[in-house]
Amino acid sequence: MGKTLYINRFSSELNNMKIAIASDHGGYKLKELIKKSFSEDIDWVDLGTHSTDSVNYADYGKEIGKAITSGIVHRGIAICGSGIGISIAANRFKAVRAALCTDSTMARLTREHNDANVLCLGARIIGEQVAIDCVKTFISTKFEGGRHEARVASLDFGIDSID
Ligand code: RB5
User: Closest Cα to atom 5, ligand 1: which residue?
Assistant: First the structure.
């Protein structure tokens, strides 16, 4: 199954924007803050973690990847201390295009040009208000399509070896 199929499933089966959010312990506090910033027309699901106890970011990147791959959400928000570990984990799923953003311009461009479906944030890197701006922009910005369509489609590969 490729990415296009997931996009088609979203548009025909889901109405309001559905979002999965997850973090490790480093992103827990920011995750809680972002949840409070969601408007009422957004359906969100919190895939953990649920405290500041130490956990592995890979497990939560995987939860986001599963939610996107299964088609139960349109978008994901993944947070760890740097944003890096959880973005690496989420991007291991073929259906995921996860983008680590540090400002709302990056969040806008990755929606317009890359049709990114997962926003990754580093809670120890950016301020709370900048993070919330990234989320709002990421949710509200549409993919531009056009010249970006074929480029995004060409990302749909997995390489296991160069032999
Ligand atoms: C946890 O200490 C930290 O390593 C994690 O949140 C993240 O930054 C990994 O990339």
Answer: 81
